[in-house]
Write a structure and sequence with these properties.
Pfam family, one: Sugar_tr
GO biological process, one term: transmembrane transport
Membrane topology: Multi-pass membrane protein
Protein name: Major facilitator superfamily (MFS) profile domain-containing protein
Distance between the termini: 40 Å
Strand content: under 5%
Subcellular location: Membrane
Length: about 625
């Protein structure tokens, strides 16, 4: 091994990998069977403990008697350089999370400033979902940007667009400019959402890849938590929602500065035949020479395999779908991303304060405070997921998480159903000062309770001494709300004895979703695709995530208005049952596998050499059986 300042001998030794060159580079001989290099370790190399059972992967080396591979040593698993790369790239997740959380609080005050928004649930959904629409475009083009220009330029472009969008939103004089800013922010979030986990995964040793990619999800939940803190901080400030949305540009600028100081992904550099630069980066990730040697050989193998099936820009998607192993991987990846949204997570994150108000808490400040608690639980759950994902496994974590989500949605369904029948009655006998403001719509007269009052598009003025006593149903506008005085003015949800049950269901939902369905779809999508398709497949999966996100965010308030809050959560519960069946049938376990081993796993599945009914695992400790139970 040459000195760190001169990587060229190692780089040259892998341009034409003969046994003599391999011995000169690291003292190991390499035999080729046409596709993948196979390491045979001579006696003069130091022993490397921590062997990983290669399971059924005999094709990795017929000349190796014990059919095992060496794992990176503990020294190479995590170092400060990897931490710096992860933290800088993870700010992309912070942008994602901040935008998700901040709009939920800002929307409460946007409704107050723009009367048209207050009157139209469709316009409210549009303000929220236009960022998602922009993210769909960003994610769709993000894959090609990543493959052509690299991970680093993609992140820098996302930061620039996001910062411009934040300025547009903060300065918006009307709803149209606000929506334009939301679209720009969404473009940045879309590119960052699929690039950040990809960049982190490609700079991570296999044994800690899941935890590091999950750290990106922790940044997402941390961004959501930060957004609720910012929302609370600006509740009494003039221009409330403008400050909330404008602050979003700060982390984008910060990440742009940090990324200028960091290298490109070593795997992308290898793909571009810039091996010298790639090895310079890999030396910092794998300080021990033998670990560096192994990683370089695996990358050479992946690039050599790509050369056999060259991809042109015109035929890339066709070749992707015609290659069965990649098609199977894409099915699993896209399905997970879609179900992550369809089980309802972003109805909770985008509309959390609104859901709190629907459960019977009228105060904006109280809604934001309770939403902050929910967001904090999300961050705690994500940290728990980081701890267990590389020990417990991706698949088990998904199944447990989805089971908990079903229970939580059942609680939410029951809570809102009971609350709808527990709302206080309407008092039609009142003093003359309010007689001209009485809501006289037929729904109110016939049903005579708070729920009917709000469904008729009116407001409910509850007695502040006991909100569950009969109250007044009045015409809905800001002036009348002010006239309600010291009493409590309800416009979204009715007071109920069971509001606490809805909050408990909301908390349970976040606690069970965040360790599994939150980070695992992103972790799996960062590691299941072949190198040459990784950017494209990651873009397709992220686009699918955002399309599903758009469907949910654009329809949630309309669903609540049309079929009721209780039935809406029941609908999400039914989708979650389907998600469990999908995981059981399509999603493999990838815990502890290198990228090359994951590719081999899909090859075996495509040939029908795996026990699909029970799921499949490539490696289990101390077993040489075909496939372990997931």
């Amino acid at each position: 091994m040459e000195k760190e300042s001169d990587p060229s001998p190692l780089a040259e030794s892998h341009l034409n990998p003969t046994q003599e060159q391999a011995q000169a580079a690291g003292g190991a001989s390499t035999s080729y069977s046409g596709k993948l290099p196979v390491m045979t370790t001579p006696s003069n190399l130091p022993d490397r403990p921590n062997k990983i059972d290669a399971g059924p992967m005999e094709s990795l080396g017929k000349n190796v008697k014990d059919e095992t591979q060496y794992a990176p040593s503990a020294e190479s698993k995590l170092n400060w350089y990897i931490v710096k790369l992860t933290l800088a790239a993870g700010i992309g997740g912070l942008l994602f999370g901040y935008d998700t959380g901040v709009i939920s609080g800002a929307l409460l005050y946007i409704r107050d400033d723009f009367p048209d928004v207050e009157k139209s649930t469709v316009l409210q959904e549009t303000i929220v979902s236009m960022a998602v629409a922009g993210a769909i475009i960003g994610a769709a083009y993000g894959g090609r940007i990543n493959d052509k220009f690299g991970r680093k330029p993609a992140i820098l472009a996302a930061d620039t667009v996001f910062a411009i969008g934040a300025v547009f939103m903060a300065a918006a004089p009307n709803v149209a400019m606000l929506i334009a800013g939301r679209i720009l922010v969404g473009l940045g979030v879309g590119v960052a959402s699929m690039t950040a986990p990809l960049y982190i995964a490609e700079a991570s040793p296999a044994q800690i890849r899941g935890a590091l990619v999950t750290l990106n999800v922790l940044f997402i939940t941390g961004g959501q938590f930060l957004s609720y803190l910012i929302n609370l901080a600006f509740t009494k400030t003039p221009g409330t929602w403008r400050w909330m949305l404008g602050v979003a540009g700060i982390p984008a600028v910060l990440q742009g500065v940090l990324m200028m100081l960091l290298p490109e992904s070593p795997r992308w550099l290898f793909r571009q035949e810039r091996r010298g630069e790639a090895i310079d980066v890999l030396r910092k990730i794998y300080p021990k020479p033998e670990d560096l040697q192994q990683e370089v050989e695996e990358l050479e193998a992946a690039v050599s395999a790509d050369v056999e099936r060259p991809v042109s820009s015109i035929r890339a998607i066709w070749q992707l779908f015609s290659h069965k192993p990649t098609r199977l991987a894409l099915t699993a990846g896209v399905g997970l991303q879609v179900f992550q949204q369809l089980v309802g997570i972003n109805t909770v994150m985008y509309y959390s304060p609104s859901i709190v108000e629907l459960s019977g808490f009228a105060s904006h400040q109280m809604a934001l405070l309770l939403s902050l608690i929910v967001s904090g639980l999300n961050a705690i759950g994500t940290i728990a997921g980081m701890v267990v994902i590389d020990r417990f496994g991706r698949r088990r974590l998904l199944l447990l998480s989805l089971t908990g989500v079903i229970i939580a949605l059942a609680v939410l369904t029951s809570a809102f159903h009971v609350a709808a029948h527990d709302s206080p009655s309407v008092n039609f006998s009142m003093d003359n000062s309010f007689s001209s403001l009485i809501c006289t719509k037929q729904t109110v007269v016939s049903r005579s309770h708070c729920t009917g009052c709000l469904q008729a598009g009116c407001g409910f003025c509850a007695d502040s001494r006991d909100e569950n006593l009969p109250g007044m149903c009045l015409v809905l506008n800001k002036t009348v709300g002010d006239l309600c005085g010291e009493n409590t003015w309800f416009t979204k949800g009715c007071p109920s004895h069971y509001g606490w049950l809805a909050l408990g269901g909301l908390a349970l939902y976040i606690i069970t979703f965040s360790p599994g369905m939150g980070p695992v779809p992103w972790a799996i999508n960062s590691e299941i695709y072949p190198l040459k398709y990784r950017g494209l497949c990651g873009g397709i999966a992220a686009t699918a995530n955002w399309v599903a996100n758009l469907v949910i965010t654009q329809s949630f308030l309309s669903l609540v208005k049309g079929i009721g809050t209780s039935m809406t959560f029941l609908f999400f519960g039914c989708i979650t049952v389907v998600a469990i069946l999908f995981v059981l049938w399509f999603v493999p376990e990838t815990k502890g596998l290198s990228f090359q081993e994951v590719e081999q796993m899909w090859e075996k599945r495509a040939k029908g050499q795996s026990n699909w009914r029970h799921g499949f695992v490539v490696k289990e400790p101390d077993t040489n059986s075909n496939l372990g139970q997931a």
